[in-house]
Amino acid sequence: MAALKSGASHYTWAAAVVGSNNAAGYQLATELPVMAVGGFNGTDPSPTLAQFQDLVTQGKIHYFISGGTLRSSSGSNAAAQIAQWVSENFTPQNIGGTTLYVLGR
User: Fold this and answer.
1) Which residues sit opposite 99 in a β-bridge?
2) Domain coordinates of the chain in residue numbers?
3) pLDDT score of 87
4) The pLDDT of residue 4
5) pLDDT band for position 6 (50/70/90)?
6) pLDDT value at position 39?
7) Which residues contact 3 (CB under 8 A, 6 or more apart)?
8) Relative to the CA of 8, which of 15, 64, 83, 102 has its CA 20 to 30 Å away?
C-alpha cells in the first residue's frame, strides 16, 4: 500500500491496526513497522487509550487502519476504545477500498 510508505520515515509506526494478524499483513506487504493494537485478537490492554493518545500527540503513528476489530467476551476493550476515539477525532479517507485515518501531520 503506497499510502503507508509515503512519509513513513518520519514516524515510529507507519500505521496502527487492531489485531496482530491484521498488523502482520500490512507489515509484510510494506516492510514497515505496524502497531498491533490490542495484541493477537484485539482484546489485550495494550496500548491503553491514554498511551495511544500520547503516541499520537508525539507524532509517532502516521495512520490508523480501520476494520479488523474482533469481538470477544473476555479481555480488554482498549482496542475498541482506541478505534472509537480515532473515528470521533480524525477524518476517514478511503484508499484502495481501505479506510485510513491520518493521525500524523
Assistant:
1) 94
2) 27-75+82-105
3) 96
4) 87
5) confident
6) 85
7) 63, 95, 96, 100
8) 83
CB under 8 Å to 65, separation ≥6 — which residues?
A: 15, 16, 17, 22, 26, 98, 99, 100
Q: What span, in angstroms and rounded, lies between the C-alpha atoms of 72 and 90?
A: 26
Partnered with residue 94 across adjacent β-strands are: 99
Phi, psi (rounded to 5 degrees) for 48: -75, 170
HEC per residue, the chain: CHHHHCCHHHCCEEEEEECHHHHHHHHHHHCCCEEEECCCCCCCCCCCHHHHHHHHHCCCEEEEECCCCCCCCCCCCHHHHHHHHHHHHCCEEEECCEEEEECCC
pLDDT in tens, 66-78: 976 555 556 789 9
